[in-house]
Write a structure and sequence with these properties.
The complex is a heterotrimer of chains A (180), B (79) and C (523).
Chain A lengths: L2 H34 L1 H10 L2 H26 L3 H31 L8 H29 L6 H25 L3
Helix pairs in contact in A: 1-2, 1-5, 1-6, 2-6, 3-4, 3-6, 4-5, 5-6
Chain B lengths: L2 H20 L3 H19 L7 H27 L1
Chain C lengths: L10 H4 L4 H29 L10 H36 L8 H23 L13 H4 L4 H28 L12 H33 L12 H35 L6 H14 L15 H29 L8 H23 L2 H7 L3 H25 L1 H5 L1 E2 L2 H27 L14 H31 L1 E2 L34 H5 L1
Antiparallel strand pairs in C: 1-2
Helix pairs in contact in C: 2-3, 2-4, 2-16, 3-4, 3-6, 3-7, 3-8, 3-13, 4-6, 6-7, 7-8, 7-9, 8-10, 8-11, 8-13, 9-10, 10-11, 11-13, 11-15, 13-15, 15-16
The chains are: A mainly alpha (180), B mainly alpha (79), C mainly alpha (523).
Chain lengths: 180, 79, 523
């Protein structure tokens, strides 16, 4: 690994660490409130749209695979295959956002909006902040797809995309699966 | 990073996700999330082969996320 | 040709990627904010001369102490030493041509300026009266410009994170060939520890402030007890950043102390390894102590006990440093120049403030002192006094490095005496006030406290005069100062290139040499 590659990898890892601490603040609020008012969280989790949560998990896990696949193809010199993989990643990200919007709409129709209860305030804050990160990640993936030179940039963008996936890996049980 | 490792990791991730659909208990769900994170970090994010400093950053970040969460949580449950 | 004259014109400054010019820009900017924050402080002190609002009414008083805190913490102390001197010196000290990401460095500066301007907009938009801590639930309901202020501070936070990222990447990957970690100058080690805190703690502050802002706009009730919210949780998030923030300020200051003590004792720093260990130790342990701000906030006794004990650990690392600095001086050939005199003040304030810190970390005692002037005096001694004296030491020590000119040592010593005596005189009475029961953040007080308040205000005026004098002779030195290259005969890496340095730092490719080779200089 040359010095430039190393420098950029280090920078992206630091950004990820920093972003992780941004989410950590919300994680701390979630678990503390969950311990204070467990009943609110038990009923909140029941109200979330479970099939969308599961589907979105599947979409993001698959997108993590497809972007990793595009790195492999880039290293093997197959640019076209890498491009296909990247476009698939983008499509999966977009699908995730569409379903997320659908779910927010369903909640809003039921009167579950930010401020309606602690659980749903946290739900909107955390999934909203995560969705912003998905959009940021998609912007980066688009940028790297259009780039001529991908050897340095693609693995860096992929690191960020995987991080966004990891955040969702925790949001899923917290908001859809694990009742107190 | 090989094709075989990527495909195996992906299948394992999907299998883990499916398992957590079946089990509703909080500790198990969190353990599965941690397992998925490790798979993504070690294989997809290539932390297995990363420079030592990158690995240290990842561990330190995880530690601080836990520290903040547990620090506040410990206060609430011991009040 | 030096970096000053290498390129000319306004754009060559405002769009520069040269870390030295960015350092100078930061220096000029933080000095402006120091002036603004200082004026707020002076008005506060003058208003406290009589028991009943000598100068400003109670509500204006609330806004003034809030703005004083916000400006001094986020716009002066956090960026002061790392962003100004760190930017200028870090590459010079490790033999690099620039930082790892020069463009990001420039972006970081402009983000900082943007954040600073937004904070000042909050001031114009009616000011903020929540205290610099933005405690909920008041901050989410306060009828003042809270949203502007939190957005401004959030933006400066982004700048902090980018600077920290840049420093870490620079130290990891830009060292001159052959320079090992154990060859790093101590100032660099301290910048490294600070950077770790910057990238890990700042996002939590950013989040906490965004939540306050969102709550203020949309009334989400996240921390509102009437809606089931828990205000103590906000304090957890706030102090998870704001306690380590103290070490963001003091660690670079400790780096300055180590460098100045070594240079003016003409001696290699004693216990290099111990200082490095203590720097990293403070950065990490500093993260385990945030709860000591919340002993009386309704936090559990379990957390209080835990955080109280962990807080005292910091004293161990701090003591290691104090002993290392004093033993560096022991047996050295000491030159009593202004930078070292400021360091003496630093060490005095640091020991006094640190000892009072151990006292207030004791939960039972803190119940008596919490939210009184005792706390105000404690953190001004250790955090403000520490940062300010080290900042002034750095300004004098590296003045010839930055500008290639020498200031008047005689006037500098007079100013140093005024600043040191003024500072101690301002805050020593506040320890007594707090212990006697005077709460902080009050515009009025019972008459029996008046003599201590008057003493404190006298100190503040003396401090202001000292700062004014400093500004005077430094400006004169900029224009008429004697041209010098290495007036302190320092062996450190940054002095091996000319003063001021050329645009790309070193004329010839820099060679690794021992940073503290005073044995050679002496012979």
């Amino acid at each position: 690994m040359n010095n430039e590659t190393r420098r950029y990898h280090l920078a992206v890892w630091i950004v990820i660490a920093s972003e992780a601490l941004l989410f950590a603040g919300l994680f701390a609020l979630y678990w503390s409130y969950r311990a204070e008012v467990p009943s609110l969280f038990a009923s909140g989790i029941t109200q979330d749209v479970h099939w969308i949560g599961a589907l979105n998990t599947f979409l993001l896990l698959t997108s993590s695979f497809s972007i990793a696949w595009s790195i492999l193809q880039t290293r093997n010199g197959r640019r076209r295959a890498a491009t296909v993989s990247l476009v698939v990643t983008l499509a999966l990200g977009a699908a995730f956002l569409v379903f997320k919007l659908l779910e927010w709409g369903m909640h809003a129709r039921d009167g579950l909006v930010p401020g309606s209860s602690l659980f749903f305030t946290l739900y909107y804050l955390m999934t909203g902040l995560h969705a912003l990160h998905v959009i940021a990640g998609m912007t980066l993936v688009t940028w790297v797809t259009l780039r001529r030179e991908r050897d340095l940039a693609l693995p860096l963008v992929a690191l960020y995309w995987h991080f966004v996936d990891v955040v969702w890996v925790f949001l899923w049980p917290m908001f859809y699966l694990a009742k107190p | 990073m090989t094709a075989r490792a990527l495909i195996l990791t992906y299948l394992l991730l999907v299998a883990l996700a499916a398992t957590s659909l079946l089990v509703g208990s909080t500790p198990v769900a969190l353990l599965i999330a941690v397992a998925k994170t490790l798979l993504i970090a070690l294989v997809f994010m290539e932390l297995r082969h990363a420079h030592a400093s990158d690995r240290i950053i990842a561990v330190v970040a995880a530690f601080f996320v836990l520290l903040l969460t547990l620090g506040a949580f410990a206060d609430v449950i011991t009040r | 040709m030096s970096f000053w004259t290498h390129e000319r014109g306004l754009t060559s400054w405002l769009a520069t990627r040269d870390h030295k010019r960015i350092g100078i820009l930061y220096l000029a900017t933080v000095l402006v904010f120091l002036l603004i924050g200082g004026i707020f402080a002076l008005v506060l002190r003058l208003s406290l001369v009589t028991p009943n609002n000598a100068l400003v009414d109670a509500h204006t008083y609330d806004k003034l102490f809030t703005q004083h805190g916000i400006v001094m913490v986020w716009l002066f102390m956090i960026p002061s030493i790392p962003s100004a001197f760190g930017n200028f010196l870090l590459p010079l000290m490790i033999g690099a041509r620039d930082v790892a990401f020069p463009r990001l460095n420039l972006a970081s500066y402009w983000i900082f300026v943007t954040g600073g301007i937004v904070v000042l907009v909050a001031l114009i938009a009616g000011g903020v009266d929540t205290g610099w801590t933005f405690y909920t639930p008041y901050s989410t309901a306060a009828p003042t410009a809270v949203t502007w202020a939190v957005i401004g501070v959030f933006i400066t936070g982004i700048s902090s994170i980018l600077t920290g990222l840049n420093f870490i990447a620079t130290i990891h990957t830009m060292r001159v060939a052959g320079m090992r970690w154990r060859d790093l100058p101590l100032f660099v080690w301290n910048l490294y520890s600070t950077s770790i805190i910057l990238v890990l703690a700042t996002p939590v502050l950013g989040l906490a402030l965004l939540l306050v802002g969102a709550d203020h706009i949309w009334a989400l009730g996240l921390f509102e007890p009437a809606q089931g919210g828990d205000p103590v949780l906000f304090q957890h998030l706030f102090w998870f950043y704001s306690h380590p923030a103290v070490y963001i300020m003091i660690l670079p200051a400790m780096g300055v102390v180590a460098e100045v003590v070594s240079t003016f004792s003409h001696k290699r720093p004693a216990w290099y390894g111990a200082i490095v260990f203590a720097s990293i130790g403070i950065a990490l342990v500093g993260f385990l102590t945030w709860g000591h701000h919340m002993f009386v906030a309704g936090m559990s006794t379990f957390d209080s006990g835990l955080f109280g004990v962990l807080s005292m650990l910091v004293a161990i690392f701090s003591a290691i440093k104090v002993f290392a600095w004093t033993s560096t001086m022991y047996g050295g050939r000491i030159t009593l120049a202004t930078p070292l005199l400021y360091i003496f003040t630093f060490i005095f304030l640091f020991i006094f403030g640190g000892m009072s810190g151990v006292a207030v970390a004791t939960t039972s005692l803190d119940v008596h002192w919490h939210d009184t002037y005792f706390i105000v005096a404690h953190f001004h001694f250790i955090m403000v006094g520490g940062t300010l004296t080290a900042f002034l030491a750095a300004l004098h020590y590296w003045f010839p490095k930055l500008f290639g000119r020498m200031y008047s040592e005689a006037w500098a010593k007079v100013a140093c005496a005024a600043v040191s005596v003024g500072f101690i005189l301002t805050f020593t009475p506040q320890f007594l006030l707090g212990n006697a029961g005077m709460p902080r953040r009050y515009a009025t007080y019972p008459p029996q406290y008046q003599w201590l308040h008057v003493l404190s205000t006298c100190g503040a005026v003396l401090l202001a005069l000292g700062m004014l004098l400093t500004a005077g002779y430094l400006v004169v030195a900029l224009v008429r100062g004697k041209r010098v290259d290495n007036p302190w005969r320092s062996a450190s890496f940054e002095w091996r290139t000319s003063s001021p340095p050329p645009a790309d730092n070193f004329v010839d490719a820099p060679q690794l040499r021992d940073t503290y080779a005073y044995e050679e200089v002496a012979s």
